[in-house]
Specification:
This protein is mainly β and about 270 residues long. It contains three helices and 16 strands. The strands form two sheets. Strands 1, 3, 8, 9, 10, 12, 13 and 16 form an eight-stranded antiparallel sheet that branches. The chain has an eight-stranded antiparallel sheet with strand order 7-6-5-4-11-2-15-14, with no helix packed on it. Strand 6 and strand 7 (about 105) form a beta hairpin. Helix 1 packs antiparallel against helix 3. The structure holds calcium ion (2 copies). One calcium ion (CA) binds next to strand 1.
Length: about 270
């Protein structure tokens, strides 16, 4: 009966087709959230799908990193960052201590490739931080002490307006989700149910072309905007048609079903291309 229930739920998820993604130009394109976060986080998951047009490989100023999803700067107490770092040419997940601007971070040597979609996630259960790429564990930090500062602005693809190091993202992004608890790889593989408990925000970028608002499908209407203003501006990411192969929810569901049935799987094997 349990498996049947999962099958029915999965079929419901599979109805949601993906038509659009956001393309960031690497010159300062961002999604910016003018409002404060709806909740203060004492645990979290941040996850997104990204494809890189550039990998940061050298310690050269503004291009030494690429921000994916973050709140605040990496000097703010109560920040979090999911970014691509030059020093290992891979991903890091960072939390800033609320008591002092100290980063706890998890990083990896996993070699990123251009022109390939990745599911990237950072989780924090109140004690331990985990970094996942395509659902595969990439590292852990035990004993982090962190609480978010909900007044810090959130952005996708950019460090923060007015901060010297912008770390602009050059690539494509879709399916960003923020949770108030640490999700497991199996849960992440099942995709995002906008009605799920503990969802803080979920953005799939399916608004019409020309729409400036980046709509939160979760419970709090935690909406963002393209670029630095609510109008057309140079920092607006481009809304473009969803290309193939992007791991759409319907594809992920098949693999989560296999996981529920006890059949081993990995995110990497989900990508046939
Ligand atoms: Ca989309
Ligand atoms: Ca704008």
């Amino acid at each position: 009966m349990f498996k049947v229930a999962i099958l029915v739920m999965s079929l419901l998820y599979a109805v949601a087709a993906d038509a659009a993604i956001l393309d960031f130009d690497g010159q300062g394109d961002m999604v910016y959230f003018p409002s404060a976060a709806p909740v203060q986080l004492t645990a979290m998951t941040v996850e997104c799908l990204v494809k890189f047009d550039r990998i940061s490989t050298t310690n050269t100023g503004n291009t030494r990193a690429q921000e994916l999803v973050n709140i605040g700067t990496d000097r703010d107490a109560g920040h979090f960052h999911l970014r691509q770092d030059w020093n290992n040419q891979s991903i890091s997940f960072r939390l800033g201590n609320v008591d002092s601007p100290i980063d706890y971070f998890v990083t990896t040597d996993y070699a990123l490739e251009l022109d390939r979609w990745y599911h990237i996630a950072g989780t924090y259960d109140g004690t331990d931080m985990h970094l996942y790429i395509d659902g595969n564990p990439m590292g852990v930090y035990n004993g982090a002490v962190w609480t978010s500062d909900p007044t810090l602005p959130m952005s996708f693809g950019y460090h923060l307006i007015g901060y010297p190091w912008e770390y602009p993202f050059d690539g494509q992004m879709d399916f960003v989700a923020l949770w108030d608890h640490a999700r497991t790889p199996e849960q992440m593989a099942a995709g995002v149910d906008p009605n799920a408990a503990g969802l803080v925000g979920y953005w799939d970028f399916e608004e019409p072309l020309g729409e400036q608002t980046v709509t939160d499908l979760g419970p709090y209407a935690y909406n963002g905007q393209l670029g630095t203003t609510a109008f057309v501006d140079p920092a607006d990411p481009a809304r473009i048609a969803s290309p193939s192969p992007i791991p759409e929810p319907s594809t992920l569901v098949i693999w989560s079903l296999l996981g529920a049935l006890g059949i081993a799987y990995s995110w990497r094997r989900r990508r046939a291309a």
